[in-house]
């Protein structure tokens, strides 16, 4: 890809397309609508569950999540009680016991809850839902706060996948993002998890951080590979200080430009691929025999709010403040503020604050964008055939022409693909099918 072409597109702000329509286009929604949607979940639908715990012990200045800092356990305990209340409310609104194949705990730092609280939540979920014996139960972990008692609770609760935040092992970068985390702390967490039988380990890395260089990215990748995780997620830092005020502590002058970010991302990619990890979609890597790599090879990869996944469930139920769920009718998002969320649950109300009912073309456009994000190509005839849609309607705006002219995408009949060397710009191609982009102010990360 020509340097001038990369420079022209790399700094454009684009959604990550973990949903379509994307979250900035959600509108206020009455809880009664969510209740109606829950009551109509078909008996044949399996579900995935996401539980959000928005607390950390300290603020990482790069963070774009909905979280808050607390040194005390009491606020976490009150919040976990609200989570338990919401699980009861939602399960009672469903017309039947729903089968569950995926459970994901995210944050924040979900392992800040007490071990007995985690066990109680897992017992409650199994009491309210038909959790499959082979369900994937995953949790996000900050290695700096993980102790042995919590590891034992995770294993007892059935956790079989752990995602560890690493970001960077460069001490200069760590100080600049207020996340000092040694290699030894990370290795200890990995060893404890594996010793407890939690064998599936993911690492999260970030490029584009302040003072980060290609060399420091390569060092972080090399040290991470020593610990042999099964998967990597490698994200580009999204600098949105007008939206996340703590990011103002990061000096913009310390950040690489689009070409620099691209060089960092490609250096990490080369190191991981060289270590026999398969590159999957925009930002994931997995060992060849990992389920994620197999799904990518077979065209069965999916994308949701946790990134790339093997999860094909049509129903995703979100629990906790700011969590987002997806039902056949559309998306729902809980109240973002912790106090607001807790008050609604205490009043016996579903905590939904915003949402988005699917419009006529949303489902087909979502499927098109998902295939582009997962496969770097889409067969419009195949996708539109599933929905009884006309491919010509998706191509009517002519938004793809400049991508063909710039050598970013190509068309063969109604098969649209991103060219191999332009794959880091895959979100640019996905955006060509986004009829909402630009319709309202939104803050997104850079395209590379």
Describe this structure in words.
Helix content is 37%, strand content 23%. The protein is globular, with a radius of gyration of 21 Å. By secondary structure, the chain is α/β, with parallel strands linked by helices. The longest helix is centred in the first third of the chain and has 20 residues, at 74-93. A nine-stranded mixed sheet has the order 11-12-10-9-8-7-6-3-15, sandwiched between helices. Strands 2-18-17-16 form a four-stranded antiparallel sheet, with helices on one face. Strands 19-21-20 form a three-stranded antiparallel sheet. The chain contains 16 helices and 22 strands. It has two domains: 20-319, TIM Barrel (Alpha-Beta Barrel); 362-438, Arc Repressor Mutant, subunit A (Orthogonal Bundle). The model has no long low-confidence stretch (mean pLDDT 92). The chain has helices spanning 3-10, 31-39, 74-93, 115-128, 148-157, 171-177, 183-195, 214-226, 258-274, 291-297, 338-346, 362-375, 380-387, 391-394, 401-405, 426-431; strands at 13-14, 27-28, 47-53, 55-56, 68-69, 99-107, 130-141, 161-167, 200-207, 231-236, 278-280, 284-286, 302-304, 307-309, 315-319, 324-327, 330-334, 352-357, 377-379, 409-412, 415-418, 445-446. Strand 7, helix 5 and strand 8 (161-167) form a beta-alpha-beta unit. The chain starts with a helix and ends with a strand.
